[in-house]
Amino acid sequence: MTHRAYLKSPAADIQTAADYLPYAEERLNKDVWQYLQSGSGQGLTSSRNRKVFEDVSLMPRPLTDVKGGNTHIELFGQSFSHPVILAPLAYQRLFHPDGEAASAMASAAQSGQMVVSSLASQPLETIIEAAGEPLWFQLYWQADRESTLRLVKKALNAGYGAIMFTVDAPVKQAAIALPKEVSAVNLEAPISLTDVPGASIVFDGWMKQAPGWDDLMWLRDQITVPLIIKGILHPEDAARAVSLGCDAIVVSNHGGRVLDGVPGSLQLLPEITRVISGKAKILFDSGIRNGQDVFKALALGADAVMLGRPYIWGLSSCGALGVAHVIRLMRDELEMTMALSGTKDLQTIKSGTYVYQSRY
């Protein structure tokens, strides 16, 4: 599955997460690399995610005393050393034989959190054992409520402490031919769709199994752990989700991998923050590439951010050590940005005017 041997430790010339890119690419098959890096359609949303970040300027406030500063955060009763959460990415054994377990181990070593995908390529129990602490579980809706609940209970019984329900990708198909040794090992066999003459494969096939608001209400009633809804861009949807009892919103366009042409997630973050107004936690996803991006998302309203492709670059290059290194680089960059901007903790970032966002 690989072209070159994995690094035994991070190379000396790797100073940012982006520096892992060439190391990852030369260790992955072309199809796997394309699967990781590509967005949907023409890639408009993927490009827009980055452009929005680039068009947000930092506003330094010098002469500020930042001695004793920190990046500590508490979410749902758990304390973390930084606000960088590993996003749920599927089939991680495509990228390294140690798969999700390596990412979980790295996240725990860096005193952070990881969200494990429904499409994980290792058993949920194996992944959480590698972490040695409670993780969060990302839920894709299954064929019906009964099979969905069985999957949720499987995660809860394994010790997962929160459910992150992804709602923006009801059509779940691997855009790659998976090797025989890689599969979604925690899922039941999928129900095959029956072709009906004259019926739409989209509306009467794929979307027939898609969840609705009533399913979200039902799921909220089934669990007592925090419920996080991922894939919200419209402020009215965010408000409705919170009114139904969701504990957090993930402002996300799925990294540009689902519907091409939607706004960059960062464009919608301020308005969703205004609408939510302290009623629930706000996480941010899509386009984070460095610690300055983390700072910008926090300054525009996020409580924490989710990191996607960059940690997989580390995993693909150097296994658990690569993932841990990417997280540490992000944290170091965030701390430097905070210090030079005059902010000593995450709450200060959120409460001040430390960025300038261009209007779209």
Question: Beta-strand level of the residues, as a percent range?
Answer: 5-15%
**Rg:** 20 Å
Main beta sheet, described?
A: 8 strands, parallel, barrel
CATH topology of the domain at 89-136 and 148-164 and 268-294 and 310-353: TIM Barrel
Shape: globular
Structural class: alpha/beta
Total of helices: 12
What is the terminal-to-terminal distance?
43 Å
Write a brief caption for the model.
The protein has helices spanning 21-25, 30-37, 44-54, 99-109, 124-131, 145-158, 213-222, 235-243, 265-276, 291-299, 309-341, 346-351; strands at 56-58, 73-75, 78-80, 84-86, 113-116, 136-139, 162-166, 227-232, 248-251, 281-285, 304-307, 355-357. The chain is an alpha/beta fold.
Highlighted features:
360 residues; alpha/beta; TIM Barrel; 8-stranded parallel beta barrel; two-stranded antiparallel sheet; 12 helices; 38% helix; globular
